[in-house]
Please model this.
Amino acid sequence: MQNRMMEFALFRLPDGRAWLGEGPFTALATAPAAGGAFYINDFDLKDPKPWKVPARLHEITAGSLAETIHLNGSQKPQIQWAKPATEWFKMAFRRIRREVQAKRLEKMVPVLTESGTLTAGDPRRLLDAIMHAPANMWGYAHVQEGGGFLGATPELLFKVKAQQLETMALAGTAKPGNQDAFLTDVKEIEEHEIVVRYLTQQLQALGDVTRDPRTLCQTSGLVHFQTKLSVQLNAAADPAQLVPLLHPTPAVGCLPRDEESMEKLREYRQQLKVPGFFGAPFGFVETDGTTHIVVSIRGICWEGNQISLPSGCGIVGGSAFDHEWRELRLKREAVLRLLALQS
Model:
């Protein structure tokens, strides 16, 4: 009988190509020239050596996943969810909105985390759903003995190859079927354009920035505004330097991104018990040097039998509590639908 893998990382591209790295991992401060390494860090970028080179690297398919990580025979997890409490989040919402109205903040993203208890099955079995995620999502996972996180995100932080960089603003959320109202929703457009403006400003020093028209991105039961941007870089860029240049964007962080605002954001995340993976960069560098870094949203994490399902919302001048509370629920429901975990 094969021993189960103690630690592994997984990254899946929207085109279906995927890699699974088997630990133990060698940690590096910069991406190795040979590629084949994962970028794993927390939201605050605390790890000075976030590039993880696996002991063995497997290119996998949805069909070969279970055999590669010895999942055969394990069952899909059963989770008992607890209803999230409004009190702490409502307090954070009011304080952030007050700061926005006083023009001390332009935007901030608080996160609500729903908790659950694993009653049966194996959370690693959810990787099947990650490998079958829609074709406009990136799959990610990092699993260790007794815990881990996984998800499928529609948000690319950046892709860079040689001197060409691609990124996107993904902000503003609605339920499918509301497209006409959404397209003219002043609050959602404002929230989106804040992210576009931030990315453009950050990238201008690196080369000429090209902005595509704002479009709709529909995935996993949600609709978002999406604007793609590309940069012809003046010189080849080090992905290790690009991450802190762009992360966190106002789609998951705050604006302005000064130390005072970031400290407040960290305080809210701590008070609301937000898992470190949520909103953090995660990625993979291919052997040809192409580097993909995504934003870890639409996922869950677990430690022992405790499960966490986080969702965030952007607070701007036009935000109303009931609307944001509903958006948070829609996002968590989208994750449960994606992972086939609906009750």
